[in-house]
Amino acid sequence: MQQTFAVGIGGAAGQGVATPGDIFAKIFSRRGLHLNAYNAYQSIIRGGHTFLTIRTGPGKVTNMGDGTDLLIPLNQDSMDRHLKLLTAGAACIYNADTVKAGSPADGVQLCPLPVSVLADITRNKVAQNTLAIGAGLHMMGIGFSALEEVLREQFKKKGDAVVAENIGVARAGYDYAAAHFTPFPNALPKTEHRYAILSGNVAMAMGGAAAGVKFYCAYPMSPSTGVLHWMAAHARKAGIMVRQVEDEIGVINMAIGAAHAGVRAMCATSGGGFALMSEGLGMSAMIETPVVVINCQRAGPSTGVPTKTEQGDLWQMLGAAFGDYPRVIAAPLDIGDCFKLIPEIFNLADRFQCPGLVLCDLLLSEGRLSVEPQELDFSPPIDRGELITTNGDVGTNGDYKRYKITASGISPRAIPGVAGHIHTVATDEHMEDGVLISDEFTNPVQRRAMMEKRMRKVTGIEAAVPAPALMGPRNADVTLIGWGSTKGVIEEACEILNSQGISANQLQIRWLVPLHGEAILEILRDSRHSIVVENNYSGQFARYLRSETSFVPDGHIRKYDGEPFMPHHIVEAVKEQLVGKTHLSVPMHEIMV
Amino acid sequence: MATGTQRANQLTMADMKGRVDPDWCPGCGDFGVLAAVQKALIELQIPNHNVVTISGIGCSSNFPGYMNTYGMHTLHGRALAVATGLKLANHGLTVLVTGGDGDGFGIGGNHFVHSMRRNVDLLYVVMDNQIYGLTTGQTSPTSRVGMKTKSMPFGNIEAPINPISLALAAGATFVARGYSGEQKHLTELIKQGIEHPGFSFLDVFSPCVTYNHDNTYQWFRPRVKKLEDDSAHDPTNWLTAMEKSLLWGDEIPIGKFFERTDVPTLHGAEPVLDDGPLIHLGLRVPTDAARSFVEELM
Question: Are A326 and A188 in contact (CB under 8 A)?
């Protein structure tokens, strides 16, 4: 079990929780430490309660963890919510002028800062934040120069006076802690590594740029909007056309229009927007124009809890748009994978001329992770499939059949503007040359042939997508099955279980369609006790797995309160299930955020 | 919308014919619109493979299949959104969007308004028959008050949309109305619309001989009056164009209501396209840009 350190900063929205978070993140990453950050917040611009957890350590930090080592409550509300959750060894730094500490557990160090004595609060409204950062860093055993460097960068646009002012305040906090507070027993380590810190949304946007996306469009919707923001800010440098559209129906149709012209086109939304896009997905499948759509899930149904995470859209994805058609659905496993997956899914969508769907969620979209910069590879393989972009030898019209019936089901795709390949694509059922069969003379033979042509692509997609693999010991006491964003937390839960004498392994699903049911069954056949872990009410993946493989797991761990799993939720649930107490555990999220 | 400089050699009507013949009812106004569009393209001599005809769903949306151009028969109401994406991805193409009043003003109303304010460079031809035809005769957004249909058997009580006023208000830079029964006039409007740099809106009275027994050829013929015959009409004057757009009754103006060419097109205003159509840009992000994207995160 690796050593990690978690800082929790709580306050009202607009109170400046993000800035100390950014400063800590920068300092940790520059020390060569990994980190994972998760911000619990509400749909409010000012007020409410925001709680940012930044967990750091020398090894990979895959999730928010179980506890807080250093709590910085910026207001009374945050103190009241979080102090009681601290355990021995933790500390709490707070503004002694405005916040009263309750009675913490034994071994929790209270660190009151006399803010009005240490700083001129009439001049510096966020002095308490800066003082707390300084004090905290001293307690973590980090030299002041690291903070000075970051503050200089942070405030350089505001001029030397502001820089000096902030460094002075930070120094006062740092020195006050040296004189009055007990440092944590282990100073934060330092390594020679350097990591990039990014959110899943930034990762997916960058992954799109790396994949050769030339057209991105979106309608703002939490928690997907970060993709739009990155795209818009970097569009000119990356050579990407970015458009904000009137609604998600317009988004998907505009993206398909651009894709039809021959560029790679992508869009991102959340469940509600995705619902509006579903008819468009059917068009992509029917006219065989590839498009990639990202759904960053939030807690539903309907407007739901817009700022909270859930894995509740799986069946919406599986059933999006009417009729049968080939599609690819993948759920990135972590923030690094958010980047890597996009070029992969574009290659599949292009090769098989069908929609590629990415099922992300708020936890990854808005969480932050340290990633090796080399993992952000801007030269991934690009396979545009059978795309006709020049006239070649074809001189006349009439020979080219856009929907030519082939063994693979893939018909070479000519883009508009290429002489000798004129054709009309249609959302109506059509013949090989694109002419409709739906209107004047419907034709069961042709319809069947076209249906089978399109669906034959599924075989090719299956062969192109790897089957999932088991992580951990083969003959474990328990096998935890998860999909997408829960990879990290399940991994840590397995480590904890193994350290406590319960051997555990993990099967994490990245490719949802195609699922590779046979391979999954092969893995699960050996499992002694299988439990599906997922962030939704009804066990959407468990039901899907059953529908595809007839496999019924021994138990379920589900969470649908809007917050992500913490490792102990899974560990405790596994234990109660292994002793036969229940088959369904729904852990209580003890942090009120 | 503007055409490319490239011209085709001697296109004829035979070159414009699609793979199948129209399956519209005999006497449908859409035949006249199809012929006028084909004639306009021949007169402009734009190579067929550089033209994309895009439609939604409905009787008139079968249009692309009857043309020998690249075509997209998309979803009900979504043609303009698809066309916007396609035009932005390859602005070297000439884009025609065709459809009906239900498709454009009903289910597609949102995209209609926004495409106009964006000044997307395309010609949008609405075959306006004031009825839903393919669904066998229901009230449309342009059906007049009192009109009896299968969905409003006791007469329509909802005020119709005025497509011309709406287009003017939404910022369309070319606004015209044609009549399927006036071939030469219609062809001229289509040519102008294709050549106009920006969003060209052309509402065409295209009578439905099967389901609309109110707004027939006999009804339109004495009423339509060409704006071009009115020497006082100034198509650069938005206010008088708006005034003219409100005329309806014994006299209904057809022709070009309004045109302005000083508004940048959507693709013209986008710096990413300074180096040419998106489709021709390299797939790879330039190395120094890619490096800077990663460095920002460190």
Answer: no
